[in-house]
Design a protein that fits this description.
The structure is a homodimer. The first copy, chain A, is an alpha/beta fold. Chain A has helices at residues 34-42, 56-62, 79-87, 102-109, 126-142, 217-220; strands spanning 2-6, 9-14, 22-26, 49-53, 69-72, 91-93, 115-119, 147-150, 154-160, 164-168, 177-182, 186-192, 198-204, 227-233, 235-241. The first copy, chain A, has a 9-stranded mixed beta sheet, sandwiched between helices. In chain A, strands 1-2-10-14-12-13 form a 6-stranded antiparallel beta sheet. Chains A, B: Residues 51-147 form the Thiamin pyrophosphokinase catalytic domain.
């Protein structure tokens, strides 16, 4: 089991073969709030290893945090920070004219045995977002691994078959919305603690309907309110806003 | 053929069975700039019909434009505007507790023989964006129709097999980026007028690589610079930023 303490709630991942350590990555999409990045990074369990893709370097810097390794073509990071990373031997520099995205290059150097968390992947252009979503989802599916995307506004988890997720918001708070999206053509899920419960329900990618669920009022009255989600078949995207 | 004049460029859709008229929709995602919405709506060919999903009503209002029909649960539109739409008989009101999203409800009332254009679909929450993307892409695929999403920052076209797209930026301008994404598991495409040309090339959904292409310098020297894209098999998403 992995417990990740995000400022907006605790994510518990119940996996048969849990990863022992964390690889935390910041990419060049929407900038995570510096305070969120700082609090999140400090509360990561074990001895996390920090990675940056290009402009992600700037986001670490804003949070006064420094990555262990940096990857990219250096075309979007602050030139001074990029130069420092190169001189310290932390940067892996690729030409700007390449087929792969920075994220795809990053995946090639991430330690395969660690739990991968990505920030700086939301927002921005639709082509970037879809490309990142497909690339990470495919990696999660093919390697049968759980992958987490997060910033202060949204948490997204690629949940393979057989993995259970629990989400505990801070006391007196509830998430704005909880959504489930099939990543494979079909998936089967159960979810409880929510207003609309699903019990071994089939989701299909081309007809999303499990969007904008909420924590149930009954759950909110319990001692440790949380949402429990299980992916029983296929791969499902578990999503929390707010 | 359909020619759509957007402020950031003209999109020409070469289809065997082109739609004669346009259904233009504004949904409740990222607000299109009022000036963009105004200019775009005024230049639509034929006699366009205007639709709003919920908060899309507010976006029309900001552009001093009024939709012909409004759909949703009224929970995110301005209450005064919503009330006016209800009283004028233009609104189709659904309960807030429903399985379908506002967009899915909207699709059920859109005239099937018209070309569908959607604005107010970008940005915001990942679950909303993905749900809209899958819903519209599936509709385009199943009904073998071209569907356009647009605002002042991004244009996205679901392009079925056999359809050709040309994009003409305004004089002295070039798009920030042109990307191609397979919507079906595989698709086959050709693209020219770009720095990286593709000739009957296979794209796969799970390994996106045709991202951030640019108009070629040679094309920019021509009299009427444009990008030509053809979808030869499967369905492909043609995307322009800026």
């Amino acid at each position: 089991m992995n417990k990740l303490f995000f400022p907006q709630g605790t994510l518990s991942i119940e996996d048969n073969k849990p990863a022992q350590e964390i690889a935390f990555c910041v990419c060049g999409g929407r900038k995570p709030a510096a305070s969120w990045l700082n609090m999140t990074a400090e509360k990561l369990p074990g001895t996390p290893e920090f990675f940056a893709a290009d402009r992600g370097l700037d986001y670490y810097h804003a949070a006064q945090f420094y990555p262990d390794r940096v990857i990219g073509d250096g075309d979007s990071a602050d030139p001074v920070l990029w130069q420092q990373a190169v001189e310290s031997g932390k940067a892996e520099v690729f030409p700007a004219d390449k087929n792969e995205t920075d994220l795809q290059l990053l995946l090639e150097i991430l330690p395969p045995d660690k739990l991968w968390i990505f920030s700086g992947v939301y927002g921005g252009r639709l082509d970037h977002l879809l490309s990142a979503f497909e690339t990470l989802g495919t990696e999660a599916l093919q390697k049968n691994r759980t992958i987490v995307l997060a910033d202060e506004r949204e948490i997204t988890v690629f949940v393979p078959e057989g993995v259970k997720i629990k989400f505990y918001p801070p006391a007196e708070e509830t998430p704005v919305a909880v959504s489930l999206l099939a990543f494979t053509e079909k998936s089967k899920v159960s979810v409880s603690g929510t207003r609309w419960q699903l019990d071994e329900t089939e989701l299909s990618r081309n007809n999303p309907f499990a969007i904008s669920n909420e924590m149930s009022e009954a759950e909110q009255l319990k001692e440790l309110p949380h949402i429990t989600f299980s992916c029983l078949a296929g791969m499902t995207v578990f999503y929390v806003a707010g």
